[in-house]
């Protein structure tokens, strides 16, 4: 009988506080998914060496963040439980009046919390296990890895950790409920009917002063952040955080009097429909809940900022990797004579073919890249320190076009007496070359071609730097061997290629790796030598750990903060709807139509959700600007993609809670 009563109470509470149960379910689901990362098959690609250390660091951070997340969720659950307890004071007083002791009531609440915990854990874990099956697919798409045969993913470690953490949370809730019941007297519980909020309007002067102070504090905090940046962690940094937080607090505190006074000044709008009732109710709530609205705004700021930065950094790493490796692999080898010590380039395609890897059959395209290095004379600077461009990289036009073809770019053309160039932002020769001087190379006088100036990160040998190269017609270098001995030419040759699209890249790369040992034996024979080999997949794998750490942990925290913010707002609004139900019944008796009453409910919920979100967006725009200044040192933050993904999260999670709260509040008002 006792268990049936507890189960009935839980079922009834599900109707009024479905948002609470959804939050618990989502919390369990997200907690399991991110703690099951170590069981994903795609993580096996990070095993071994430096990559394994990155994976270990990522999983360690997941463990640390999980403790932090569990604390946040614990406060959320206690906060929500406190709302539910206040709503049921009269019910619990009735139980006590009927003869139930405080101990029996505590036992009833214990069973109810147990049912809630089991229900939330069961549904959340089921969703978590289901969602974790797609994490590997999602990760493989991020890193361009071919998906192997599907197999079921289950993490016993994540399951036990979820049960432990949430078990402790629900145990704390049980203790809290028992403590709360033991402190309540029967008279307090029976007289728990909510009274009207006392609307103590602040004077317009004090509201304006608080509003102006909030703008000043926020302006100073924004200026400090933009001027000093995010990396200066000192006393002033915490002063900046304090000013920003205090400015946010003053902003919402000023609304309790300022907002209502502004609308009262427009009597036509104020007395239209139920606007007077709606605005006074909302202003009363802001006056008593401005602290919680401040906390919600700051949590939304964290959710937006963390999610946007993690997604933006992920795309930045993608851009850097693609610039570093525009083709699938490169291989170069030099043979060093054991007798003379001289080095000669190895014919890579022919040697690969002899070793068992046929470039014509295994590749969609390939190119032999030749790079010449030498001094280049600038006649107009004769007799000065700038007369020669020392050790300048020179690319034949055919070589440059072959590289462009591998990268999916169109070829360029040069007149026989013209040269092109790729410019680097940091190379000292860039300033000289910006004047388009006449160059003398191998007896050829070449003029600058303004159409062939490229500001690009030309990757030769998978370099992460951006270098200065001259692009010249092939015939200029046709007799390079006749150059004087005191200015020798150093030639580097690479073979670059792209794998076939109809064969999995991992399969082709495995074949290439299998033939490398035979390639080295054939290339060097009894002599010595050296070789360089790298692939796009390997570079992706090297950055995979960083991408997972940045993206997954960012999304993990972002979703948790977003859920907590939305859930707290939803619970507050549902509680307010229950408080306002008698007032809406009075409005109905006075002739207010149901459409007007519903609009009043929707407006209050909409204002409560949008005001903290709008201020958080303003905060995040300033924060993203400062973050972009830091990230610009290694790349450019993809603000479009990060904003789009963050907006999608807000629409899906925050929007869902907004709609659910509107419908739930309307149903509570109608049913009561």
Summarize the structure.
It is found in: Cell membrane. With 672 residues, the protein is an alpha+beta fold. It has helices spanning 2-16, 18-35, 49-87, 89-97, 102-132, 135-142, 156-182, 186-190, 204-228, 235-265, 267-270, 275-324, 348-355, 359-362, 397-406, 429-433, 505-524, 536-589, 594-631, 639-671; strands spanning 329-336, 343-345, 363-377, 388-396, 418-422, 439-441, 444-454, 469-472, 490-499, 528-535.
Fold topology:
Elements (H helix, E strand, L loop, with lengths): L1 H15 L1 H18 L13 H39 L1 H9 L4 H31 L2 H8 L13 H27 L3 H5 L13 H25 L6 H31 L1 H4 L4 H50 L4 E8 L6 E3 L2 H8 L3 H4 E15 L10 E9 H10 L11 E5 L6 H5 L5 E3 L2 E11 L14 E4 L17 E10 L5 H20 L3 E8 H54 L4 H38 L7 H33 L1
Parallel strand pairs: 4-8, 5-7
Antiparallel strand pairs: 1-2, 1-9, 1-10, 3-4, 3-9, 5-8, 6-7
Give an overview of the whole structure.
With 672 residues, the chain is α+β, with helices and mostly antiparallel strands. Helix content is 65%, strand content 11%. The protein contains 20 helices and ten strands. Strands 1, 2, 3, 4, 5, 6, 7, 8, 9 and 10 form a ten-stranded mixed beta sheet that branches. The longest helix is centred in the C-terminal third of the chain and has 54 residues, at 536-589. The protein starts with a helix and ends with a helix.
């Amino acid at each position: 009988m006792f268990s049936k009563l507890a189960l009935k109470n839980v079922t009834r509470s599900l109707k009024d506080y479905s948002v609470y149960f959804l939050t618990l379910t989502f919390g369990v689901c997200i907690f399991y998914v991110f703690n099951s990362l170590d069981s994903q098959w795609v993580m096996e690609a990070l095993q071994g060496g430096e990559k394994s250390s990155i994976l270990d660091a990522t999983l360690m951070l997941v463990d640390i963040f999980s403790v932090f997340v569990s604390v946040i969720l614990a406060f959320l659950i206690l906060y929500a439980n406190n709302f539910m307890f206040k709503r049921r004071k009269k019910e619990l007083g009735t139980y006590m009046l009927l003869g139930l002791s405080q101990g029996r009531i505590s036992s009833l609440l214990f069973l109810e919390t147990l049912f809630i915990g089991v229900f939330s854990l069961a549904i959340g874990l089921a969703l978590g296990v289901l969602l974790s099956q797609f994490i590997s697919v999602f990760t493989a798409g991020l890193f361009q890895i071919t998906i192997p045969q599907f197999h079921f993913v289950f993490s016993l470690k994540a399951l036990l950790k979820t049960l432990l953490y949430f078990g402790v949370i629900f145990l704390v809730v049980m203790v809290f409920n028992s403590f709360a019941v033991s402190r309540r007297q029967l008279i307090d519980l029976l007289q728990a009917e909510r009274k009207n909020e006392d609307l103590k309007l602040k004077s317009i002067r004090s509201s304006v002063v608080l509003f102006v102070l909030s703008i000043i504090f926020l302006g100073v905090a924004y200026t400090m952040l933009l001027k000093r940046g995010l990396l200066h962690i000192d006393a002033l940094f915490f002063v900046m955080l304090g000013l920003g937080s205090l400015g946010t607090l003053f902003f919402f505190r000023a609304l309790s009097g300022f907002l209502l006074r502004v609308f009262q000044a427009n009597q036509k709008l104020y007395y239209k429909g139920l606007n007077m009732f709606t605005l006074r109710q909302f202003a009363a709530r802001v006056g008593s809940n401005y602290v919680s609205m401040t906390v919600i705004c700051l949590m939304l700021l964290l959710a937006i900022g963390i999610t946007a930065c993690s997604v933006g950094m992920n795309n930045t790493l993608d851009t850097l990797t693609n610039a570093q490796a525009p083709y699938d692999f490169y291989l170069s080898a030099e043979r060093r004579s054991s007798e003379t010590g001289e080095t000669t380039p190895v014919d890579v395609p022919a040697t690969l073919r002899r070793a068992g890897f046929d470039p014509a059959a295994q590749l969609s395209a390939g190119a032999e890249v030749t790079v010449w290095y030498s001094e280049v004379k600038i006649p107009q600077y004769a007799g000065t320190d700038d007369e020669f461009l020392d050790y300048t990289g020179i690319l034949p036009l055919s070589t440059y076009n072959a590289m462009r073809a591998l990268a999916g770019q169109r070829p360029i053309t040069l007149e026989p007496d013209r040269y092109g160039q790729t410019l680097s932002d940091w190379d000292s020769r860039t300033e000289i070359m910006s004047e388009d001087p006449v160059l003398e190379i191998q007896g050829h006088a070449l003029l600058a071609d303004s159409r062939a100036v490229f500001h690009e990160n030309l990757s030769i040998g998978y370099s992460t730097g951006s270098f200065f190269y001259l692009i010249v017609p092939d015939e200029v270098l046709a007799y390079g061997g006749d150059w004087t001995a005191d200015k020798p030419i150093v030639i580097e040759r690479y073979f670059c290629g792209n794998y076939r699209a109809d064969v999995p890249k991992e399969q082709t790369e495995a074949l290439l790796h299998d033939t490398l040992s035979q390639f080295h034996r054939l290339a060097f024979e009894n002599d010595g030598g050296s070789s360089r080999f790298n692939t796009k997949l390997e570079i992706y794998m090297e950055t995979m750990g960083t991408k997972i750490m940045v993206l997954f942990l960012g999304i993990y925290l972002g979703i948790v903060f977003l859920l907590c913010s939305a859930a707290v707002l939803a619970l507050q609004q549902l509680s307010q709807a229950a408080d306002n139900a008698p007032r809406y019944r009075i409005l109905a008796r006075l002739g207010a139509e149901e459409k007007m009453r519903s609009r009043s409910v929707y407006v209050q919920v909409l204002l409560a959700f949008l005001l903290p979100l709008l201020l958080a967006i303003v905060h995040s725009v300033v924060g993203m600007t400062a973050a972009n200044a830091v990230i610009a040192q290694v790349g450019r933050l993809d603000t479009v993609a990060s904003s789009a993904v963050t907006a999608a999260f807000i629409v899906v999670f925050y929007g869902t809670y907004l709609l659910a709260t509107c419908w739930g509040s309307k149903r509570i008002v109608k049913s009561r």
